[in-house]
Amino acid sequence: MRAMVYRGPYKIRVEEKPMPVIEHPNDAIVRVTLAAICGSDLHLYHGLMPDTRVGHTFGHEFIGVVEQVGSSVQNLQVGDRVMVPFNIFCGSCWYCARGLYSNCHNVNPNATAVGGIYGYSHTTGGYDGGQSQYVRVPFADVGPVKIPDWMHDEDAVLLTDAAATGYFGAQLGEIAEGDTVVVLGAGPVGLVAAQSAWLMGAGRVMVVDQLEERLAKARSMAHAETFNYTEYDDIVVEMKKQTDHLGADVVIEAVGAEADGSLLQHIAGTKLKLQGGSPIALNWAIDSVRKGGTIGVVGAYGPIPNAVKFGDALNKGLTLNMNQTPVKRQWPRMFEHVRNGYLTPRDMVTHRFPLEDISEAYHVFSAKLDGCIKPLILPSAA
Fold it and tell me: Which CA distances in Å does 140 have to 17, 71, 332?
């Protein structure tokens, strides 16, 4: 089969790889019909995540058709169209029993924190991802869900991570009716976080970014007020001015390890690898939220330390909620919101590339060329 293969930082290509096979009776093999490149895939592409091995196939956002099922699989049949959450989880451990699917205890021998994730280095289990023609799906009875007949494929693929993570970010903010919410980052996760904040009762939603095409999308898609931080001497001061000098009630950090805004921190975190990524956005969140406020963190960071203003968070009495998104837990409510038009994930899609052009797709997305906000990959076009 054809698959995207990692060859080192900024080096990927499409190669022939062996077809995945059933390794356990609970496995399924899925023929990928649509995949996406996630902003967190860029952390791998840029060499920021440890133990990203040569030969690994990325891609944790994908949908497809079931080609084979193991002998124990009962909920899926060959030919079913399925959407697969980015979390790999067993469904029965202490964490899964409490809906913490992203922290499953049985799927990642390499860590005590995160569970398994498709295509996201050996730090998260070493599972090959869906930027390929076929993928092995473990625990096929508990992860994948049949795509509803009414759901658009592009909505379905975005619900496997980006849209679900944005929704989860708003949940982590514990938004109360009338709250002022600031979303840091107008990428796909931030856009859905802003849409979701309204659903959860926000009275005002502000989005901060530096790219005008993203900010324009935040205005049209999420009806948010927007702020280009490059136009202000200090965006934290501007956020205070916008909130009677108190700070926002809730800040959602949807940027993560490659935040710009401070040259020193960006170089230390993303170039010299002295930190698990740049902490700029997280520190802006701590500074921009009011005392006693809440921060929801869904931006991805590496596992090594960061220069985070934890003392300020302590002294302000902040609540910091964070985790990798337990995707399937969000789906029942999100499906209804998408069906009713309150959430519109596919509105953020700007580019579609055949699998054979995935190297170009990564370059365009990484360099933010041609107004690229969310690129999709079509393996069937290979």
Answer: 22, 11, 18
Regarding pTM above 0.85, the answer is yes
CA distance 167 to 343: 9
The CATH number assigned to the domain holding 257 equals 3.40.50.720
59 and 44, same structural domain? yes
Structure-model confidence comparison of residues 233 and 301, the more confident one: 233
Q: How far is CA 261 from the centre of its chain?
A: 21
Name 49's bridge partners: none
Query: Is pLDDT of 98 > 90?
Result: yes
Q: Are residues 38 and 179 in the same domain?
A: no
In angstroms, rounded to a whole number, what is the distance separating the alpha carbons of residues 331 and 42? 25
Distance separating alpha carbons of residues 171 and 330, to the nearest angstrom: 10
The residues pairing with 36 across neighbouring beta strands, listed in sequence order, are 376
Neighbours of 341 (CB within 10 A): 7
* Cα–Cα distance for residue pair 231/35, rounded to 1 Å: 35
370 burial (CB, 10 Å; 0-12 / 13-18 / 19+) is exposed
Nearest to 265 by CA among 284, 247, 250: 284
Selection from 55, 58, 17 nearest residue 35 by Cα: 58
Q: What is the spatial distance between Cα 167 and Cα 188, in angstroms, rounded to a whole number?
A: 11
